[in-house]
Amino acid sequence: MxxxxxxxxxxxxxxxxxxxxxxxxxxxxxxxxSADAGSKQSAPSPTETVLAALxxxxxxxxxxxxxxxxxxxxxxxxxxxxxxxxxxPRVYTRIVIEHRVAGDVEPEALRRSIELSATHYCPVSxxxxxxxxxxxxxxxxxxGRDEVAALVAVTGPEGARVx
Length: 163
Description:
Largest sheet: 5 strands, mixed
């Protein structure tokens, strides 16, 4: 069975700037905008929200898996960097996702959690991987120990490579 979603977007001022107000299927409002010549941007751009959706999706997966593994993260943030093509439509050509975790977390538990999100659970990552190379990395800080950093996986049009 295939499920579908309905999103309704309204252009706030069709004669003015590009600002759009969106209502998601679950009823939540979003505002999107982009800088036109001479206008000030008042909300994130659509492409920024793609990176935000990726960061949100994978972080929810990884945090959930870490909890199930009884790993005690005291802080967790994700930095997502996207490189765009110079020519229009200026699509992302490479995206780096860095999970920044602190706490009593074993490196292998974190690595495996990121791998599962990148290759199995996160639908945003799966969709983007059809046309973009994604690098999934982490930095782990634990009390009294050296910081650990590693590349976990590279996903993209050529498939997935787990490191």
